[in-house]
Write a structure and sequence with these properties.
The chain is mainly beta and about 100 residues long. It is built from no helices and 10 strands.
């Protein structure tokens, strides 16, 4: 289980017996898993856990570390989904097309 305040897609962020899945999470095999990169938000009143991403645009540069996922491969074009997490905890997501 993740011990930080930031979750990556696929991270186990809670047990189903502790919380109900909220925004950008899904139940999986008795756990609640993040489906988006972002900040983990626990609502102890309603017993839900969510992941809140940021839509803030963050420029990337040489040496930036990004998390990417191939989302579709066609004969001459590929689509990639990228997420950038900065040291301040901001995240940016975008889709790139390559011919």
């Amino acid at each position: 289980m993740v011990d930080s305040d930031i979750a990556l897609p696929g991270d186990i962020i809670a047990k189903e017996e502790e919380y109900l899945p909220g925004k950008n999470t899904e139940p999986y095999d008795g756990n609640i898993v993040a489906t988006k990169l972002g900040r983990i938000v626990r609502d102890d009143k309603n017993l839900t856990i969510s992941v809140v991403g940021s839509n803030k645009k963050t420029p990337i540069g040489v040496g930036s570390i990004v998390y990417g996922k191939v989302i579709k491969i066609m004969v001459r074009t590929q689509l990639y989904s990228f997420t950038l997490l900065t040291r301040g905890g901001n995240c940016t997501q975008w889709i790139m097309r390559q011919n």
